[in-house]
Amino acid sequence: MLDRVKVIQGDITKQAVDAIVNAANTTLLGGGGVDGAIHREAGPHLVWECRKLGGCPTGGARITKGYYLPAKHVIHAVGPIWQGGDCGEEDQLARAYRSVFELVEQHAITSVALPSISTGAYRFPLDRATRIAVRESRACLERNFSLKLIAFICFEKPAYDAYVAAVAETFG
Length: 172
Known about the structure:
Distance between the termini: 10 Å
CATH superfamily: Leucine Aminopeptidase, subunit E, domain 1
CATH architecture: 3-Layer(aba) Sandwich
Helix content: 40-55%
Number of domains: 1
CATH class: Alpha Beta
Structural class: alpha/beta
Strand order of the largest sheet: 1-6-5-2-4-3
Shape: globular
Strand content: 15-25%
Number of helices: 5
Order of helices and strands: EEHHEEHEHEH
Number of strands: 6
């Protein structure tokens, strides 16, 4: 199974995969960080399609076309804002990843690139978030044999190091 998982330090908007995942807000209309970068690179059609979706609740995910991105699709996942850990944030983040993988299965996606959802402006602790992301990814790979690649794309070195450690711990 480990041969189907990669950790890459780089730019998610440059990944030539079936789908990239956007760490979106509930409006799906763009924002800062990964969300803003994906919207800029995809072009104006992405926000037009997102407007038609009418938003997405925390823990959910929606799929759109990739437009000018190398990826065919964008899966917009809404993670929780960290409020100290006593407000169900871990369950909400796990649900966001499960929602992504449900869309992966429904749309016969064979390769997906994921950012570190909720760890930027939403302040989810990186070590907890990586363990959740990798755990949910493993669960998906155990049941979805047509998914050939899950790539964790880390813009910064601390995230890269955290994902490398979580993958080694979970798949090692």
